Amino acid sequence: MAEFSIGDHVSWNSEAGRVSGKIIRIHRQDFDYKGHRRHASHDAPQYEIASDKTDHVAAHKKDALTKLSWAVEARLKPRSDAASCAQRQRPALRPASR
Q1: Is pLDDT at 40 greater than 70 in this prediction?
Q2: Dihedral, CA atoms, 63, 69, 74, 75, nearest 10 degrees?
Q3: d(Cα 55, Cα 71) in Å, to the nearest integer?
Q4: Using an 8 Å Cβ cutoff, are 49 and 58 in contact?
Q5: How many CA atoms lie within 13 A of 96 on its CB side?
Q6: Which of 47, 52, 54, 55 has the most CB atoms less than 10 A away?
Q7: Rounded distance between C-alpha atoms, residue 23 and residue 45, angstroms
Q8: What is this structure's pTM?
């Protein structure tokens, strides 16, 4: 399994479907998280990840995470207003002349 670093963009499965976010903290010792004791070690770290779409922060083991490539990250980034306007204002198709 790959090791992850702070700032890596990852995804994981949740009850609501696939979620993505950035790693904000790495735990290598047991820690308390949302009222529960989470077990972590140097050989089995846990990662805190901030969701891309909400303010939710999740904690997961490395086996639950998939590192996203730059191509996937580009698709997940919101478009700028100018780019989304250009997408919506496509020219109308002209009928072919015969």
Answers
A1: yes
A2: -60
A3: 24
A4: yes
A5: 1
A6: 47
A7: 12
A8: 0.68
pLDDT in tens, 83-98: 545 555 555 556 666 6
First-to-last alpha carbon distance for the chain, in angstroms, is: 61
Q: How far apart are CA 61 and CA 5, in angstroms?
A: 13
Between 13 and 86, the higher pLDDT residue? 13
Question: Any idea of the CA torsion for 5, 6, 10, 11, to the nearest 10 degrees?
Answer: 120
pLDDT at 55: 87
DSSP string, 35-86: TEEE---SSS-EEEEEESSSS-EEEEEGGG-EEPPHHHHHHHSPPPHHHHHH
Mean per-residue pLDDT, 4-14: 94
Residue ranges per structural domain of the chain: 9-88
User: Which DSSP state fits 22?
Assistant: E
